[in-house]
Every structure is written in structure tokens, then in C-alpha cells.
């Protein structure tokens, strides 16, 4: 039986509190960090490509560290190691998919390291995507400007470096157990009901 009239037998479910203003401000700062890192990465990539096109001549490499590291200008229709030369459009779709994924992840990012990592990935993906879309021989089939020759094995650019750095950083964050959303503060489990009921 109820001890008091009007007292519900079960407690009403707790409503989820709205995000605190400081939480929203924190996410806004992280989003700004992500976009800022992405813009800086993109500017470095596109600026270095403009310089390479003006300063370098295809087929005339310049040694930086002997044969270990050279400046060697090429137009690459494929990916690293010249893979995918005949499916440039597919690489364009992959780059576009990365941009879309980062855009969706940006709405959930709650950790500074993840924001910087996603920004680096975004800048690199957009850098190569611009080449695929705007450069010859045509829309979606453009050849990427590569000019950093590593050991004579493959030639890349700043965007490639950014993508690799972001991949390594993301793997490290995942191995350390740091979620994309970061540590959520203010969540408390509802206390267990320790009230004993009389069977009599």
C-alpha cells in the first residue's frame, strides 16, 4: 500500500540536462581549432605546390639530402607509389569521403588532440581534392602535384605528409583509449534505490 496519498509508486525518469554554456563554448573552441589547423595545412599544401610549379622542372630533380631526399616535380594521377593511375576518379571519391567523414566527426569532437588531428586530416584531404577537381586533365580526374622524393621510392607533397601524420596521431589516441568525444564531465549515475520495503 501507499504510505501517502498522491505519492507515485515509481520515480519519474530523470530528464537529460541541457549542455552547460561552458560546454558549448568548449566545443566551439575545439571546432575553431580543427578548422584553424585545417586551413593552415591547406595553405601550406597549396602554397608549396604553387612554389614547386614555378621553381622546379619535371625531370630535373634537386638534391636536399643527397639521394635520400630530393625535390622532384611530377603530376601524379594515382596515389602513393603511383598506385591507381587508371582510377583517378575513385581516388577523388575517397578524398571526398574523408572530407565528409571529418565534417561529421567535427560535430562530436570533445578533445583538443582529436581536434588538431582531424584538422590536419581535413587540410590534407582537401589539398589533394583541390588538385583532383581543378587541375588538368579535367574535373575529378586532375593530377596531383607531387614534388618531395623520398629515397627514390615515391614522391609526395605536404598534403600526403599531413594525412600520414593524422593517421599516426589518430592511432596513438585510439591506443591510449582517448575517445573522439573526449571525457564527458557532469554525468552522474542515478543512485541505487536502497529503500527496503516491508513484505508485511
From TrEMBL:
Q: Give yes or no: UniProt keyword Transmembrane.
A: yes
Question: What is the catalytic activity of this protein?
Answer: Release of signal peptides from bacterial membrane prolipoproteins. Hydrolyzes -Xaa-Yaa-Zaa-|-(S,diacylglyceryl)Cys-, in which Xaa is hydrophobic (preferably Leu), and Yaa (Ala or Ser) and Zaa (Gly or Ala) have small, neutral side chains
Upper classification of the source organism reads: Bacteria, Bacillati, Actinomycetota, Actinomycetes, Micrococcales
Signal sequence coordinates: none
Functionally, this protein is described as follows:
This protein specifically catalyzes the removal of signal peptides from prolipoproteins.
Pathway given for this chain reads: Protein modification; lipoprotein biosynthesis (signal peptide cleavage)
Active-site residues per Swiss-Prot or TrEMBL entry: 146, 160
The cross-references to InterPro entries, in alphabetical order and at most eight, read:
Peptidase_A8
Q: Where are the transmembrane segments?
A: 87-106, 113-130, 150-175
Q: Which family does it belong to?
A: Belongs to the peptidase A8 family.
The gene that this protein is the product of is: lspA
What is the enzyme's main class?
A: hydrolase
BP term (GO), one: proteolysis
User: What's the name of the protein?
Assistant: Lipoprotein signal peptidase
What is the protein's species of origin? Knoellia locipacati
List the record's Gene Ontology CC terms alphabetically.
plasma membrane
Q: Where is the composition biased (Low complexity)?
A: 7-17
The main place the protein resides is membrane
Amino acid at each position: 500500500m501507499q504510505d501517502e496519498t498522491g505519492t507515485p509508486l515509481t520515480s519519474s525518469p530523470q530528464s537529460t540536462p541541457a549542455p552547460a554554456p561552458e560546454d558549448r563554448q568548449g566545443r566551439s573552441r575545439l571546432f575553431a581549432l580543427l578548422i584553424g589547423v585545417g586551413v593552415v595545412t591547406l595553405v601550406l599544401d597549396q602554397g608549396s605546390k604553387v612554389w614547386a610549379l614555378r621553381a622546379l622542372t619535371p625531370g630535373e630533380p634537386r638534391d636536399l639530402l643527397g639521394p635520400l631526399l630530393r625535390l622532384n616535380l611530377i603530376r601524379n594521377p594515382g596515389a602513393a607509389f603511383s598506385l591507381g593511375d587508371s582510377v583517378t576518379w575513385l581516388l577523388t571519391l575517397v578524398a571526398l569521403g574523408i572530407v565528409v567523414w571529418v565534417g561529421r566527426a567535427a560535430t562530436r569532437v570533445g578533445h583538443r588532440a582529436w581536434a588538431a588531428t582531424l584538422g590536419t586530416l581535413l587540410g590534407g584531404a582537401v589539398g589533394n581534392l583541390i588538385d583532383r577537381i581543378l587541375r588538368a586533365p579535367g574535373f575529378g580526374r586532375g593530377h596531383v602535384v607531387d614534388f618531395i622524393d623520398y629515397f627514390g621510392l615515391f614522391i609526395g607533397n605536404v598534403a600526403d605528409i599531413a594525412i600520414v601524420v593524422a593517421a599516426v596521431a589518430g592511432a596513438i589516441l585510439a591506443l591510449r583509449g582517448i575517445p573522439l568525444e573526449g571525457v564527458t564531465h557532469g554525468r552522474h549515475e542515478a543512485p541505487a534505490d536502497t529503500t527496503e520495503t516491508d513484505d508485511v
